[in-house]
Amino acid sequence: MSEEQAFQLPKSKGAAPLVSGTLYIVATPIGNLEDITLRALRILGGVDLVAAEDTRRTGLLLQAYGLKKPLVSCFAHNEEKQSKRLLELLQEGKTVALVSDAGMPGISDPGARLIRQAAAAGIPLTVVPGPSAGLTALVASGLDTDAFAFGGFFPRETKARKAWLTDFGSFSGTLIFYESPKRLIATLAFLQAAWGERRCCVARELTKRYEEFLRGSLPEVIARLEQMPEVKGEIVVVLEGYHKVKGRNLNADELEALGRSLLDRGLSKKEASRQLACETGLAAKDMYALLVSWGREEG
Ligand code: SAM
User: Fold this and answer.
1) Fewer CB under 10 Å: which end of the chain, C or N?
2) Is residue 276 part of a domain?
């Protein structure tokens, strides 16, 4: 965008002037350049400097709106050092806008450390809200929005995964998390094995040209993804929460069928006994003993 074409902000009577020494936490688009608020543009145009996760990328964003500002980098590996420097500048009275590559800073992005330290030091800070991929996907998913949890990026390591499953496995609200397209199918299959057939929505390329939503049960969505030559783009997964079937009364045959199907899906005896306990309301240790006893009979 040339200088002449630069976006003209409407004169807003209510717009408060920037306050010296304030940290402005500014959300930026998650794909569609139009998704930026008038306030964000006014703040970005008015601050002394912009602290950005990637200065080149943010430079291009500012350029698209006809803005030019001094940029300093603040990303995962220099956040500690840079936060110190930025706090000094804020204490000297400079105004600083903090932005990440996309969406809300601090949400699976750098920024949380600087924000925490600024708050602790009594530095005034304010958020200029805007898009965030997780909430955008949740709203489109059609799943329950009354209560939800954000699980960040789905963990890659076994130990962290186990902790993640424990943290969120019995949460009855909707679960939102980020995943790479390369691991998506394996992750959904893993969750189906652990938690059974929940409804889900895979939101791909939100706000962009090829935005897509795949909704259905986990096996249905997995089957559709498997038909694609390659899963590409940025992904958010929205997953239905755990619904306890209160006191579901299973007879011995039904209990055995359910237990065996869980083991067949690849769950360990411990995981399967936890799932059986959730389904039936019976004690997990009793379910574990039952699963072990089948092993003995067969052995
Ligand atoms: N701070 C961002 C926010 O507020 O959503 C999240 C940054 S995180 C490093 C990047 C991840 O967010 C991507 O890998 C993807 O999982 C998700 N994401 C970001 N933009 C997206 C989009 N347009 N469509 C789908 N997912 C997106």
Assistant:
1) C
2) yes
